[in-house]
Design a protein that fits this description.
Elements (H helix, E strand, L loop, with lengths): L2 H22 L4 E2 L1 H9 L4 H8 L4 H18 L21 E2 L1 H12 L9 H10 L5 H8 L4 H9 L10 H17 L1 E10 L3 H8 L14 E5 L13 E5 L18 E10 L3 E7 L9 E10 L2 E11 L6 H6 L1 H21 L3
Parallel strand pairs: 1-2
Antiparallel strand pairs: 3-9, 4-5, 5-6, 6-7, 7-8, 8-9
């Protein structure tokens, strides 16, 4: 992943999560507390540091509600805070940053970044810890920690990712081998999911629930029965249809040859890894796409490593595929970004 894409990805992921959390509260103005909520969901060192201090998504949500109630009480107002609803950001519009949140993000973006965008979320958290209103400090106190403790955790090794287990390492070698043999374009990303591994695993291995985490699929129906598609335990495939409407109700135009695809579970290791394959039976040149999900337990939830592999065309089309490998990598990154966001939302 290039430095530009890495930095853009860090900023986009943080912004999206913050505005999603604002929409859950029925708000259009996205403020610094929503940034703190987004950081509690981050797979980067800033998120690890917060969760190591007990600042989980649920803890921050509860602390913000208590803080808002306390602020109203200080003004002599006794108001029962409304219960938050579901995330409606993708169905609505009109979201914007408050001035102080926008200024903070601008300061974080203007600082120097490394080649993978690492450091952006840490700069945002560092600026939140010294934000002059004291609101973040008050919320952290309600979570049972302090700005000083979070700063110490951020300076430590809490953001380092442990080495993969031998089983996961073998699967990564298998994927790399397949990519080298068949000429795949691949990309990886990580996402933190605020749910225990067992719940995340149950979602990822259920073919009928694929639309919950793969936005490119609208529905999954029964087993494929077309001629040439086998139906046995080792190669069972399901039909999947593309979505026809966006979350906001607008129609999606889908070419006829891309309306349906087959879904097949290639490999699964209970509670650890699953690999799905997606193919377009009506578009021979579309190529095969695999999605690999590796799970491991993390403080406050589950860390999922996503790998997307896209087979290049063979024969005379291979030259075209090579020429398009750059744009295709960008498409893969966007694909991973959408999957990671949907996987997180499924448990929020």
């Amino acid at each position: 992943m290039s430095g530009i894409i890495g930095a853009a990805g860090a900023a986009q992921t943080l912004s999206l999560a913050a505005m999603e959390e604002a929409s859950r509260q029925g708000k259009r103005d996205t403020d610094i507390e929503h940034l703190l909520l987004a950081l509690a969901l981050s797979d980067r060192p800033a998120g690890s540091a917060l969760r190591a201090c007990g600042v989980s998504l649920s803890a921050v949500r509860r602390a913000i509600r208590d803080q808002e109630a306390a602020e109203l009480a200080a003004l002599g107002m006794s108001v029962r805070m409304p219960e938050p609803g579901r995330i409606v950001f993708h169905e609505t519009s009109g979201y914007a940053w408050t001035r102080r949140a926008e200024a903070l993000l601008s300061s974080a973006a203007s600082a120097r970044s490394d080649s993978e965008g690492a450091g952006y979320t840490e700069r945002v958290l560092t600026l939140l810890l010294v934000e002059p209103s004291g609101r973040v400090s008050d919320v952290l106190a309600r979570c049972g920690t302090s700005t000083a403790e979070v700063r110490l955790a951020l300076a430590g090794d809490t953001g380092k990712i442990p080495a993969a287990s031998s089983a996961r390492a073998r699967m990564e070698l298998d994927v790399a081998g397949a990519a080298g043999t068949r000429g795949w374009v691949s990309g990886t990303s990580e996402v933190f999911v605020p749910a225990v591994p067992a719940d995340v695993w149950a979602l990822l291995v259920d073919p009928l629930r694929i639309p919950e985490w793969f936005p490119a699929i609208g529905t999954v129906s029964g087993l494929a029965e077309d001629k040439g598609l086998e139906d046995n335990e080792s190669s069972r495939r399901w039909w999947a249809l593309a979505p026809t409407t966006r979350p906001d109700g607008k129609s999606i135009r889908v070419r006829e040859q891309f309306r349906r695809r087959t879904v097949q579970m290639i490999e699964a290791r209970a509670g650890e890894s699953v690999r799905w394959r997606f193919e377009f039976p009506d578009a021979a040149r579309a190529g095969t796409q695999d999605i690999v999900c590796d799970l491991r337990e993390d403080a406050g939830g589950t860390r999922v490593r996503l790998t997307a592999l896209w087979a290049r065309p063979q024969g005379w089309c291979r030259l075209v595929g090579v020429l398009l490998s750059g744009p295709r990598r960008l498409v893969i990154w966007l694909n991973l970004f959408q999957i990671g966001g949907a996987l997180s939302r499924a448990f929020r």
